Amino acid sequence: KRALDLNELEEIRRDAYESVKIYKDKTKAFHDRTITRKSFEPNQMVWLYNSRLKLFPGKLRSRWDGPYQVVKVYPFGAVDIRDMKDGREMKVNGQRLKHYVENAPPVVIESTDLVDPIYS
Q1: Which of 25, 28, 48, 51 is nearest to 38 (CA)?
Q2: CA-CA distances (angstroms) from residue 23 to 15, 17, 20, 67, 72?
Q3: DSSP state of 12
Q4: What are phi and psi for residue 30, nearest 5 degrees?
Q5: What local confidence, expressed as pLDDT, does residue 35 receive?
Q6: What tens digit of pLDDT does each residue of 38-75 get?
Q7: So what's the pLDDT on residue 26?
Q8: Of 1, 12, 17, 65, which sits with the fewest C-beta atoms within 10 Å of its C-beta?
Q9: Whether the Cβ atoms of residue 37 and residue 77 lie closer than 8 Å to each other
Q10: How far is residue 35 CA from its own chain's centroid?
Q11: Residues with Cβ < 8 Å from 88, sequence gap 6 or more?
């Protein structure tokens, strides 16, 4: 009786291990589908993520600095960028960059007057 119970327990563990593996594979495939690959070329304009702002956040401050100009793109994601204000160059991880859109349409915000409503 005990040997039969142990074999049954081992089979349940094996099934649980397989179902966890299937779940992890599906989750990884879903996550990999949502990742967007960014590619940068020299002379392209980019924004740089300011990671220091996480420590001392300002309520309405943007976490993106820039624009910067791409100087050189290395394999495996490293990018040399040049600051447009003072001309200094730095090497950063490409994951901290996003494309700069120069002629983006302005965001239109509707304004409403704060008067008492008229009920009929």
Answers
A1: 48
A2: 12, 10, 5, 41, 40
A3: H
A4: -65, -45
A5: 81
A6: 899 999 999 999 877 566 666 677 788 889 999 999 98
A7: 96
A8: 1
A9: no
A10: 8
A11: 82
- Cβ atoms of 45 and 102 within 8 Å: the answer is yes
Block residue for tokens 């990884």: 28
45, 100 contact by CB (below 8 A): yes
Please say whether the beta carbons of 67 and 84 come within 8 A.
Answer: yes
> What's the pLDDT at 112?
66
The span from the CA of 51 to the CA of 56, in Å, is 10
Nearest to 65 by CA among 79, 48, 82: 48
Per-residue H/E/C for 55-73: CCCCCCCCCEEEEEEEEEE
The stretch 65-93 carries a mean pLDDT of 92
The answer to whether 47 touches 59, Cβ cutoff 8 Å, is: no
Question: What is the full DSSP assignment across 94-114?
Answer: GGGEEE--TTPPPPP------
